[in-house]
Write a structure and sequence with these properties.
Number of helices of chain B: 7
Number of strands of chain B: 10
Number of strands of chain A: 20
Distance between the termini of chain A: 26 Å
CATH architecture of the largest domain in chain B: 3-Layer(aba) Sandwich
Helix content of chain B: 25-40%
Radius of gyration of chain B: 17 Å
Structural class of chain A: alpha+beta
Number of helices of chain A: 13
Order of helices and strands of chain B: EEEHEEHEHHHEHEHEE
Structural class of chain B: alpha/beta
Distance between the termini of chain B: 18 Å
CATH superfamily of the largest domain in chain B: P-loop containing nucleotide triphosphate hydrolases
Shape of chain A: rod-shaped
Helix content of chain A: 25-40%
Strand order of the largest sheet of chain B: 6-7-8-3-9-10
Oligomer: heterodimer
Shape of chain B: globular
Radius of gyration of chain A: 40 Å
């Protein structure tokens, strides 16, 4: 009865009541919309956080570019070439600065040479020759001279002894004479020219480094040839030539092994040009625990009949801290700027020899002319699986390169990372980030977040203002009604119920309408916004897979809207009760005795 | 038969600046079937005394007895709901309820069956001289005299036999004033109501059975 009368009286002020319903529903809409977008936004960011990875690659810039000159016997001219100079090699510890928040800390990856003599590698070394030769006449090889092959110590292909070839010391502006009747052991490299068959290759040299990056000086250093005399191969020099021949054979039986702390830290995998074809990736736990597991390339697996689950023995004998495998191992050939002989003039001994479980077989799409590929026959292993020291087996050492040094940071922290990095004032290292477009996406999500806060603030302020305003209209301005009802014998509780029941019913209706509309609008708005900022491949600099990351579409939980409605209703109840208390505190005696209505 | 008795009743209230003793040691009694007037100048405390008799507040000292039962021991909400009704100069009708709904409100409070309410309301409105076409009107559509009649009908609807009227004719012209006084006198003398009227109008006072005069909160009995 009280409720009926309350509602009846409320409906007899239709304009005010309709205004209350409409405005309160609108405020509930804004509030609910804001909360839903906020929630949706948080869930979307979290989903994208899980799907995206942000890695940084590091390159040490040269401090200067030096000019060199090289004689060319064919053109009879010196040619000028540039080469970078580094004042020092910056250690990877330079990236360990306060505030740097790494998910996977910076690693400067070496690659190891694994001597896999029982496997087919199809390494292409056909252009190298180590042999004893004798000139047909006394000559100076500043132009092509004819040489007869006396004995082949090592050749990339079958080479008949007794054949002749044309040799030119092409890049030497002061070649030494060769004498007919003398035999010379030479390291030669095939040369594509009408007049020249071979030019000199590296002689007996060592490029061994210590772990700190300093060079180990060897007490030998020969040019590309030495005269062979009786008992030569029993001398230290002769032995080194035999070792060099052995090293060439070793290279033919070598595959590169690339240790890392995460497959995605290798740019080809990150960019999607390398991907697991069979089996599975090495897990984070396996990386962390240093399990002896590996990923092998499809062609190596096929050539050797290897499958996922097989074991692969990896005798590691050298470590290269200058290059990535792609720099030295390509399908078309091998290119070395280092020597396989250590400072003792011997082939590096194996320093780690273990069997690795093949977890996955990957395929790599090598881009031509790119140094971002995986390299021919490259096997990926966890860095921490190599527990033996490689300190005595380092044959090359150089500055950090994009394809040798990388790290992972949380998504969306590039700017803060770079701000902290700028404070380090290190201008030698250039950091490039890859985040698959997360930064671009994040901007959209941040905008959405701001929009939801705005909705939330407007909704909350509007709701509170309206609650207070309409409580004033429907309660405080009805003091006389309360007094009359009290005069008629209504208890305080009944008087309160008489005023509040209708008011709260309209409030509930408004909240229900507003929150329902807010739920649907919030879902729609959020989906539209996230679709608009979904994925931008332009931002990524690598060859990213065309498909965006697989992020599940988020659905809004209804209970958020219910909770918003409930909170709004409870707030309305509390405020209205406070206002009603103010009404009932007023003496009905005084009010009713007033002579004016 | 004595219905209400006030003994040494005082009432003090606090304004923003001072304490005001509106009623000072008032002692009086009222019998069923009679009409009383309480007169006095503005601010003499007559309306305050009426409100105390209506149970809208309690005396700060002294006691009011209804049928020999002290007011302090009574449920005053029930007292106003079932026994005593008040009529004010300003009518105090609920503006958003129709005339009939205003009259039916006390009946609803007293749980009178829904089917009987309307019929009884019509009877009561008839008894105060209002015609049928007024029933669905809202109070603001009526004249002052008509509103006061509705207020009296509403007071009667509660079913109690005590009617307290605070300046019931204060807002009315002399013709309506006469009508209202007639109604009040007939309620007392013909329907056995105890009617107490607060008024400063001598013409109204003269129509009552007994007049109490108040001056500065002190009650003086007159014939």
């Amino acid at each position: 009865m009280i409720f009926e009368k309350s509602l009846k009286q409320l409906l007899r002020t239709p304009v005010t009541t309709a205004l209350f319903l409409m405005l309160f529903a609108t405020s509930a809409f804004f509030l609910c919309c804001g909360v839903n977008i906020w929630e949706q936004n948080g869930a979307t960011i979290k989903a994208y956080e899980d799907a995206f990875l942000t890695i940084g690659v590091v390159q040490q810039s040269a401090t200067a570019v030096a000019k060199g000159e090289r004689w060319n016997a064919e053109t009879k001219q010196y040619s000028i070439f540039n080469y970078p100079q580094y004042s020092s090699i910056v250690p990877v510890s330079a990236l360990d600065f306060e505030g740097a928040d790494y998910l996977l800390g910076p690693e400067k990856r070496p690659y190891y040479g694994a001597w896999v003599q029982d496997y087919k590698t199809y390494n292409s070394l056909s252009n190298l020759l180590i042999a004893e030769l004798t000139p047909l006449t006394d000559c100076v090889p500043d132009s092509p001279v004819k040489m007869k092959v006396v004995k082949v110590l090592w050749s990339g292909y079958t080479y008949n002894e007794g054949n002749t070839l044309r040799l030119c010391d092409l890049f030497n502006d002061n070649p030494q004479p060769l004498y007919a009747g003398k035999t010379y052991v030479m390291s030669l490299q095939q040369y594509s020219s009408d007049e020249i068959d071979y030019i000199p290759a590296s002689g007996i040299v060592s490029t061994q480094y210590r772990a700190d990056g300093t060079r180990v000086q060897a007490d030998f250093n020969t040019t590309f040839y030495q005269e062979v005399t009786a008992g030569f191969y029993q001398t230290e020099d002769g032995k080194r030539w035999l070792e060099l021949a052995k090293a060439q054979q070793r290279i033919k039986e070598t595959i590169p092994v690339w240790p890392t702390s995460g497959t995605h830290l290798l740019l080809p995998f990150y960019n999607g040009t390398a991907f697991i074809l069979e089996g599975e990736d090495i897990s984070a736990e396996e990386y962390a625990n240093g399990e002896r597991v590996c990923l092998i390339p499809q062609n190596f697996a096929r050539d050797n009949g290897l499958e996922v689950g097989n074991m692969l023995r990896l005798p590691l004998y050298y470590a290269n801290y200058q290059n990535a495998p792609i720099d030295n191992f390509t399908k078309s050939g091998m290119g070395f700027n280092f020597s396989l002989l250590n400072a003792e003039g011997k082939v590096y001994p194996v320093f780690s020899d273990h069997e690795y479980l093949i977890k996955g077989i990957y395929q790599s799409i090598e881009g031509s002319g790119s140094n971002q590929g995986m390299g021919h026959n490259t096997v990926v292993i966890p860095s921490s699986s190599v527990r033996e020291s490689d300190a005595d087996n380092i044959l090359a050492y150089g500055p950090m390169q994009n394809n040798t040094t990388s790290f992972q940071i949380p998504n969306g922290t590039i700017e803060s990372f770079m701000a902290l990095w700028a404070q380090q004032k290190n201008d030698q290292l250039k950091i490039t980030f890859y985040d698959r477009g997360f930064s671009q996406l994040q901007r959209g999500l941040e905008n959405m977040k701001k929009m939801s806060v705005l909705f939330l603030a407007v909704g909350a302020m509007m709701s509170l203002t309206l609650v207070f305003f309409f409580c004033h209209i429907f309660i405080t301005k009805q003091k006389m009604r309360s007094a009359i009802e009290r005069m008629l014998g209504f208890s305080k509780r009944k008087s309160a119920a008489s005023l509040l029941s209708g008011f709260l019913l309209v409030a509930v209706l408004a909240i229900a309408i507003g929150c329902t509309a807010g739920y649907f609008a919030g879902t729609r708005l959020s989906q539209n916004t996230s679709m608009g900022v979904y994925y931008d491949t332009d931002f990524t600099s690598g060859h990213v897979a065309d498909q965006p990351p697989d992020v599940d579409e988020q659905t809004l939980p209804v209970w958020y809207s219910v909770a918003v409605g409930a909170i709004l209703f409870v707030t309305t109840c509390l405020v209205s009760v406070v206002f009603m208390h103010g009404n009932l505190k007023e003496e009905p005696l005084k009010m009713l005795s007033s002579k004016k209505e | 038969m004595e219905k209400i008795r006030a003994e040494q009743v005082s009432y003090t209230y606090q304004t923003k600046y001072q304490k005001v003793q509106a009623v000072k040691n008032a002692t009086c009694s009222f019998e069923q079937g009679k009409i009383y007037a309480i007169t006095g100048e503005s601010g003499s405390g007559k309306s305050t005394l009426l409100s105390l008799l209506a149970g809208l507040d309690l005396p700060t000292s002294g006691e009011i007895y209804v049928d020999g039962e002290p007011m302090r021991g009574k449920n005053r909400d029930i007292y106003r709901q079932k026994e005593a009704s008040v009529v004010y100069q300003a009518f105090h009708l609920l503006p958003l309820l129709t005339v009939a709904e205003n009259v039916m409100l006390p009946m609803e409070m007293n749980k009178v069956p829904r089917t009987e309410r309307r019929e009884r309301a019509i009877q009561l409105l008839h008894s105060v001289g209002l015609s049928d076409d007024m029933y669905e009107k809202f109070p603001k559509m009526m004249s002052g005299g008509e509103q006061q009649r509705v207020a009296i009908a509403r007071a009667m609807a509660a079913g109690g036999k005590i009617l307290l009227a605070d300046e019931p004719t204060g807002n009315l012209d002399s013709k309506n004033e006469q009508n209202i006084v007639d109604i009040l006198v007939s309620l007392a003398h013909e329907k056995d109501y105890l009617v107490i009227v607060v008024t400063h109008n001598q013409m109204v006072a003269q129509r009552t059975d007994m007049v109490y005069r108040m001056k500065d909160g002190v009650l003086l009995q007159q014939v």
